[in-house]
């Protein structure tokens, strides 16, 4: 049995963590968290951290003891400099809470890259955990819609770089912009994206702690995640009625199934394919031919099979990337955003000259 730590930082991280807890408590009822046992096979500790009390109050499936409020008025806005100093002031409190929960085999820290709290707490939190412990820590990072504005874009660029430099064992990318295809209003898009991420993480935890017909384990996951450029994404697909396992694998690797825009066959570096379902669906020929196709272009592919009586085929793919064109695009937009912010600052300096002009009449009264 694995001991797993899952931390959700900031509003986005908190909500995805709540979606994980919703699935894990197996309940749609708001009160599920008060009486039911988690469905996890592993021992999973979840912690939601936020500076904004209202974001924490909004959570429905995460227990009160699993919420850490770091008081700072109404959050830190989108200001990462402020966020980092708030983290520094409260670091020992946060670390104590994590340490009181015992030892872990693996940890996940979930955050948006672009907001204030999550994006500024996550890099130093991972650094702190990595310095004090020797279990692997993976960041699950949500990228912004590109039209959300210059501050969010520049935050995303700096946050991702800092997470990479934090000692993290790998970054799993999910991209709001790419997942926008889901459609609907913003709130329901957020909920669908959060549920997609939650489902994938829970499937992964189930797979890492399963007795499979053909085994993949935490060691294989670590090997996959250490490949490529330290970046990864996850694909998932559950077969629709009558769909065979071959098509289900293809769908999991297509834009329908992935959390981040990538051409798997061009940008992939290593992969882990986990197939779950009733034995009758799991044709070894179909699975082998798809896995061979993948390994011929991405390199090593670990394969795991979980037999679950009566279940339609479901496929999860963890894929590390050696190139990420979409990320390069994001960084070039972010660089423009940083320049725009700098120019705005210069204009603000110019405005100070106007203030100086006004200040010349300070203390004077009109004389008629
Ligand atoms: P923080 O609370 O200061 O860390 O800020 P947020 O987590 O709200 O960060 C803002 C970014 O997160 C924006 O890019 C939003 O689009 C995104 N975001 C906020 N809430 C959610 C959510 O529930 N789901 C998803 N997928 N993205 C979210």
TrEMBL record:
**Compartment(s):** Cytoplasm
What SUPFAM superfamilies does its record include? Answer: Tubulin nucleotide-binding domain-like
Q: What is its main location?
A: cytoplasm
An example GO BP is:
cell division
Instruction: Give residue ranges for domain Tubulin/FtsZ GTPase.
Output: 3-212
Task: Give GO cellular component annotations, separated by semicolons.
Answer: cell division site; cytoplasm
Q: Which InterPro entries match?
A: CetZ, FtsZ/CetZ, Tubulin/FtsZ_GTPase_sf, Tubulin_FtsZ_GTPase
Question: What domain of life does the native source organism fall in?
Answer: Archaea
State the family named in the UniProt similarity comment for this chain. Belongs to the CetZ family.
Q: HAMAP family from the entry? A: CetZ
Q: What does this protein do?
A: Involved in cell shape control.
Q: What is this protein called?
A: Tubulin-like protein CetZ
Species lineage: Archaea, Methanobacteriati, Methanobacteriota, Stenosarchaea group, Methanomicrobia
Gene name, Swiss-Prot/TrEMBL: cetZ
